[in-house]
UniProtKB/TrEMBL annotation:
The keyword Chaperone does not apply. Keywords: CBS domain, Cell membrane, Membrane, Repeat, Transmembrane, Transmembrane helix. The keyword Calcium does not apply. The lineage of its organism: Bacteria, Pseudomonadati, Pseudomonadota, Gammaproteobacteria, Chromatiales. This is CBS domain containing protein. Belongs to the UPF0053 family. Residues 2-201 form the CNNM transmembrane domain.
Amino acid sequence: MEAIPVSLLFATLGGLIILSGCFSGSETALMSLNRYRMRHLAKQGHRGARIAERLLQRPDRVLGVILLGNNFVNIAASSLATLIALRLYGESAIAVAAGLLTLVILIFAEVAPKTLAAVHPERVAFPASYVLWLLLRLLYPLVWLVNTAANALLSIIRVRVEDVSAAELSQDELRTVVNEAGDMIPRRHRHMLVSILDLEEATVEDIMIPRTEIVGIDLDDPWSETLERLTNSQYTRMPVYRGTVDHVMGFVHVRRIVGDLVRGNFTPEDLQARLKEPFFIPEGTGLHTQLLKFQRQRERVGLVVDEYGEILGLAALDDILEEIVGEFTTDPGTLTRSINRQDDGTYLVEGSATVRELNRVLGWELETSGPKTLNGLILERLETIPEAGTSLLIDGYPVTIVQTQGNRVKTAEIQPERPPSVQRPG
Ligand SMILES: Nc1ncnc2c1ncn2[C@@H]1O[C@H](COP(=O)(O)OP(=O)(O)OP(=O)(O)O)[C@@H](O)[C@H]1O
Ligand SMILES: [Mg+2]
């Protein structure tokens, strides 16, 4: 030992302190990496990110190797400092050396590298991952031993080490991530992404056209009327039934029969021969599920049925897509197929407008778990057969019934502003 010059001992001590700083820094860097960015970079082929991702799949092992290294160099540094103190000043200097070394390690090998790593985790973690990967392979048996012993100790006090990599984003977390993406994702796109998540919570009843609004062909009607209807139809697909839509026989696709219609002598039998099986959707089907079903079965519209087989309404692919991207409309006055802005700034709204549409277009926040349509809302408030001219407040907004049909509201006028005197309940 006598042969080693003190200067070499000092140099080694400095080297150990630097190494210790590298270990501390890489620990903090790996732990504060943004996991989603890392995964993204790894998918793009960034090698450092790929290795970091693999390392972090077993955090106990990386931590094991980092701590093993860190403790080893710290203890070695301490022994060295003791040796230097003994050589230079004798036993009395050992305590002073310990104090000094503590300070030096704290500043240069802990606080400074860890702060740096926390500020630039990627720049530290990715290069460090290469080294740690190598170290982990070299020291694996030792790390394994340390981990096993530590886990055994933990199990005595009933702490279980689960596979941390399984931690996935919940819906709400994902929503937060999207909303906090800030300028990285344009506002409209963020809106769409959140709408896709919201699809989970809505069902086909929320978007369907209620049965009273379904435009179809009643085979009991005079044939000349039916021909008229087929030729002038606004919709491409219509249910064909006898008497009521509950007795639906199939769907007619108007474009497919247009040739026959033009050629003339199109008979009810011809129509029945051209019908396509109706596509039924059980009530309560989530919009997400329904979207996939439409896609797989190559359907565009379907009839929503309840458990008794009664038809509740018609759900269309377009309407689910509108939930995600907003309305598809070319007419600036027509906000949706059932909400129209009038010149005086009020809205003329069909009774069949859905609560979700009202919320979306007018910026309302009506409860979507109650009635699904404006008509339903009005009936719930009035509790009587509605009459034209009746006014009421919905969520503080004045609504006037304009036209009724049978026992339901056909159209209503809505003031877009709440009168100042009206306080919103709750
Ligand atoms: N028979 C129908 N009765 C009432 N509303 C319908 C009917 N068919 C479609 N709709 C409504 O019309 C809108 C457009 O739907 P869709 O695009 O599927 O029909 P379309 O425009 O007639 O068909 P296409 O776009 O293939 O010509 C949807 O909002 C849907 O709810
Ligand atoms: Mg269309």
